[in-house]
Amino acid sequence: MSVSYRIATIAGDGIGPEVAGATVQVLQALLGSDVLRFDWLDGGAGHYDKTGEVLPQSTLDACRASHAILHGAAGLPGVTYDDGTEVGNDLHLKLRFGLDLYANVRPIRLLPGVESPLRHHQPGTIDYVIVRENTEGLYASRGAGVVLRDEMASDSLVITRKGTERVARFALELSRRRQGAPKDGKRRLTVCDKANILRSYAFFRRVCDEVGAEFNDVELDYAYVDAMTVHLVKRPDFYDVIVAENLFGDIISDLGAATVGGMGVSPSAELGDRHGLFQGAHGSAPDIAGQDAANPIATLLSGAMMLEWLAVEHADDRLSDAAGRLRQAVDGVLSDGRYRPREFGGDTGCSAFTEQVLRQLEG
Ligand code: ATP
Ligand code: MG
């Protein structure tokens, strides 16, 4: 087969270039440049600083025309628009909305050789997926909140039927397909909300329920977000797929990442009906940028998610095989025990870790 896939690749800011570079190197080693073609594209806060553009039209067009998007991370402190507001990760947000990437998929899995701060948990026992609604919720208020006479401020929370139905359906279908299962072997969708206090969350739960009724094989479960933070620490092995409104999904996925080693191990995929963007669940971590200190695992595993998504979209087994080899290589380096990323208190930097992943692939 000579099919090739165009991957729109945006390094971005901070540690973005380091972790995206590492991932491209590994993906090329896995499949060769005939199968995957990486187009490096401009964008981000640093690019804005130089050119006055966060997301050039040419980058957006190339993303639209590509098979998938691989992203490092975006955002740099201190880079602001003329009105003084931070540019931040606007590149990422513009892509999210421009391509309607409504489901933010964040697997939380404890890898071999990684110590969880939840000491009684072993690899394999924490293995669930958070599906964060990515286009509305409280974050829909971004830029639209108001401050009244410096005395009061307010934002609004928006939940739509359409937005909730599509993300709930996505999460239920994911539960149907996924391999990892909770300890009791049940397929389960946990709806995480605050339905007891706010009407919008009660509506979110009701719409999830309605869609869930079409899926007899997936058990519906509910948790208020405050209780959810306790459950994810005390009994993470109970969970299969969790669906949450944008803000709550953001918060519980950082919590989940911490339980399996840190921000640097958590991958993410942002998916719409036509496009997919893959990047670590972390931001651009400017505090450690340029020091070869970043953990590349999150982006490497996002690369594996990209291959798996492309494999399904294009019915191409070569890509799912490659994704499996990539996961095994990361697991292999971690299990070896000699190469602990700096994020875990070890001394293996981004490039040294990547080198070991490449070794595993050769061996
Ligand atoms: P965002 O607003 O995009 O969520 P953030 O301000 O929350 O970004 P992150 O970049 O996600 O910040 O990360 C918070 C901290 O976690 C970083 O400052 C860094 O110390 C650490 N961190 C994040 N990603 C990594 C990584 N890949 N490797 C090592 N440490 C990381
Ligand atoms: Mg964050």
What does this structure look like?
The chain is α/β, with parallel strands linked by helices. The protein has two domains: 1-92 and 276-362, Isopropylmalate Dehydrogenase; 116-260, Isopropylmalate Dehydrogenase. Helix content is 41%, strand content 18%. Strands 2-1-3-12-11-4-5-10-8-9 form a ten-stranded mixed beta sheet, sandwiched between helices. It has a two-stranded antiparallel ribbon with strand order 6-7. The two termini are 25 Å apart. Magnesium ion binds at residues 254, 283.
Layout of secondary structure:
Elements: E1 5-12, H1 16-35, E2 36-41, H2 45-51, H3 57-65, E3 68-73, H4 90-98, E4 103-109, E5 127-133, E6 146-148, E7 152-154, H5 161-177, E8 188-193, H6 199-212, E9 219-224, H7 225-234, E10 241-244, H8 246-259, E11 267-271, E12 276-280, H9 297-313, H10 317-336, H11 350-362
Parallel strand pairs: 1-2, 1-3, 3-12, 5-10, 8-9, 8-10
Antiparallel strand pairs: 4-5, 4-11, 6-7, 11-12
Adenosine-5'-triphosphate binds at residues 15, 75, 89, 263-264, 280, 282-285, 287-288, 294-295, 298, 343.
Domain Isopropylmalate dehydrogenase-like: 6-357
Cofactor: Mg(2+); Mn(2+)
Keywords: Manganese, Metal-binding, NAD, Oxidoreductase
